[in-house]
Amino acid sequence: MRKLLSAIAVSSVFLVICFFLIRFILQLITPTNGFLTVSSSLPKSQVSLDSKQVGNSPYQGENLKVGTYKLKLEGKFATASSKFFSGRTVSWSNQINVGSNTLTVVNIDFGPTDPFNAVETLSLRRGTTSLSLATQPRGAKVDLDSKNFGESPLAKEAKAGVHRITLSKDGYLTRQLDINIPEGYQTVIQVTLSANPLPKTNGKLSTKAALNLYNLSSSLGSLLEKPDLWAEGVWFFQEKSPSLETKFDALIDFNGKAYYYDKAAFKTSLNSNLALNVGYLGKLSDKGLTAEAQTAWDLLVPATKITQVEILPTPTGILNVRDGPSQTNKVLTTIKPGEKYELTAEQSGWYKIKVGATEGWISSQYAKKL
């Protein structure tokens, strides 16, 4: 989880703009026309201007009349790209302005639903070499080449050349943009940040059998207004970020609704007493679970008898209890043959047991279930 929180969502599609290649094209455009490029994280997304399809991404529009257009992109997740979202069609639309003899660049990094789309719009206008930047939401911290540049919105003079911009704000995914600021041009950028569906965990709320309940509470209205979309965001970014330290098998929201990434697999793992993680989608202002969420949590695990294990004879007469399922993990304590303990989780070759207030792992070779 911490890796996600400290990780940076890099816009791989929003590439460094090579101004000197564009300049030749701009010189061919009459002063009353503009130039537009559109790119998307989903290949061959359909591009429409004022409800008229004009091509697919990556799209280049030349000799566009100056004015305001309704730009729409519609893409589809690849059939084999996701367990949850394969084949889903997603779309985004907004108004853009095409200025006289101006280059406008639009890039969208699609999420499963609107709160998780990240969008960048860039335009070049003749003037003082500078950078103007606005974000949605406002108040994002702006770093230019790893140095603090201010808070959005801002407008400052900047050196010409290639730069890396990093945008960060609590509750949103940090974003990086690699841009080229050309000499004698004002670079204007507008960025919509993606909501972070996996905010910094506020700790473990509860443990029951092999289930761990983590607090993922947020204060973002876009998540709290539609918890079902919040859950989709969790599944989406889990698939997109395979290096996450903590992944969730189920979620419970503050209304008491439960969501499963794979309900059948969840039940199978639960019946096998395998460790499972559940996330609580709550309001940051609340203290712990709501009554509805507590009921859902209680119902998540049917009432069953506690499984115990009995320790078998060992060559040394004791058995190590470790802080992880490996011979290299730290020894927490030792136990003796004949003793019985509550089994809380298991995985290949290892049992997790409760020893007083401590939980640890023992080799299943020297224990049997009762």
Plain-language structure description:
Strands 5-2-8-9-16-10-13 form a seven-stranded mixed beta sheet, with helices on one face. With 370 residues, the chain is mostly beta strands. The two termini are 35 Å apart. It is elongated and about 90 Å long. Strand 23 (319-322) and strand 24 (331-335) form a beta hairpin. 14% of the residues lie in helices and 44% in strands. It folds into three domains: 2-192, no CATH class; 204-300, Lysozyme-like (3-Layer(aba) Sandwich); 308-369, SH3 Domains (SH3 type barrels). This is SH3b domain-containing protein. Residues 308-370 form the SH3b domain. InterPro entries: PEGA (IPR013229), SH3-like_bac-type (IPR003646).
Q: How would you write the strand order of the largest sheet? A: 5-2-8-9-16-10-13
- The secondary-structure class comes to mainly beta
How large a portion of the residues is in β-strands, by DSSP E? 35-45%
How far is it from the N-terminal to the C-terminal residue, by CA?
35 Å
- Compute the number of structural domains: 3
Please tell me what the overall shape is: elongated
Pfam families: PEGA, SH3_3
Domain SH3b: 308-370
Protein name: SH3b domain-containing protein
